[in-house]
Amino acid sequence: MTISTHVLDTERGRPAAGVRVEVYDSTGTLVADGLTDEDGRIRELAETDGGVYRLVFHPPSPFFKKVELTVVLGEGHHHVPLLISSYACASYRGS
Questions:
Q1: Which of 45, 48, 80, 81 is close enough to 6 for a disulfide, judged by CB 3.0 to 4.6 Å?
Q2: What is the pTM of this model?
Q3: Degrees to nearest 5, angle at CA 34 with 48 and 31
Q4: 41 falls in which pLDDT band (50, 70, 90)?
Q5: Nearest to 46, CA basis, from 29, 59, 61
């Protein structure tokens, strides 16, 4: 199972570069981390077994210091994007 992500700054209408993203397994162990590139992407964030994972984003926001998503991931590839602005955020299951 693999994970990628994309962080978009919807307030400014551009990718969010340099955002730290961490992946923790169900025991709370850090299994992967990285920084988004100039396109706001981490193409190969993690490669691990399926299960429950917590993705922690540290966006450049005056309000959000971190955004955490707990997701259930099966076999295959999973793309977990984050849309962020100063005072709002959203995510969805990407393709």
A1: 81
A2: 0.93
A3: 30
A4: very high
A5: 29
- Check: CB of residue 58 under 8 Å from CB of residue 83: no
What is the CA angle 75-49-3, rounded to 5?
Answer: 70
Any idea what the CATH number is for the domain that residue 87 is in?
2.60.40.180
Q: How many CB atoms lie within 10 A of CB 22?
A: 18
Q: How many domains, in total, are found in the chain?
A: 1
Give the domain extent around 46.
2-91
The Cα angle at residue 16 between residues 92 and 13, in degrees rounded to 5 = 80
Residues 6+ apart with CB under 8 A from 59: 7, 16, 19, 66, 67, 82, 84, 89
CA distance 54 to 59: 16
Model confidence at 60: pLDDT above 90: no
State the pairing for strand pair 89-91/82-84: antiparallel
